[in-house]
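Human: Respectfully, please carefully check these C-alpha cells:
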Amino acid sequence: MSSRRLSALLLVLTVASGGCTTLDRAIGMVPWFTTMRDQPAVRPFEGPLDSTGKAPKFLPPEGSVPITGREDSNSIYDPAGLRITDAMHNPMAKNAASLERGGKIYNTYCIVCHGVQGHGDGTVAGRIGYVPDLTLDITKQRSDGYIYAIIRHGRGVMPRYGDKIRDPGDRWNVVNYVRKLEGQTTP
C-alpha cells in the first residue's frame, strides 16, 4: 500500500474514531474519494433567466399538461362555470363500494363540520357559524357536478378539499355518499 493511501486511511480512521463525525461523512471529506453526496441538482424555479428576462428556462412551456392530465376549473362563481358543473356527469356508480369509500373520506374531512348525518351539526360547526345541512331540499336540488365543485374548490367558509382529496374518483364517491345521506341513494 502506498504511503499516500495509508496516510489517507489513517486520517479517515482517526477522524471517524474521534467521534466527531460518521465514517461516511469522514470519507466524504477526503477529496479524492468519490461519493454521491455532492451532485449537481436542477431546481426548476431557480434557473437562469433567458436573454429577455423571462421566467427561468427550466419551467415547462406554457400550457403544458402533466402526464396525468388536468382537470377543468369548473368554478361555480361565474355563469359559464356553473353551467359546466351542472352538466358534469358523475362517473362513479352508486354502489356499495363507492358509498363505503365516500363514507370513509366524508368521515375524514367532512364530519367535523357537517356532522354524522350531514345536518351541519359537527363538532366545530358552532365555532364556524353557519354550516349547511346537506339533507335539505336546496342541496338535494343541486347537481352532482355542483357538489363535486364545492368539494374541489370550497365556498364561503368551507375550504377547498381538492388539494386533500386529490383523486377525482374519490370526490365523486363523496358526492355519492352525500346523496346517501339525503336519502337519494341506497346501497
Summary: The radius of gyration is 28 Å. Residues 63 and 134 are 37 Å apart (CA to CA). Residues 3-17 form the longest helix (15 residues).
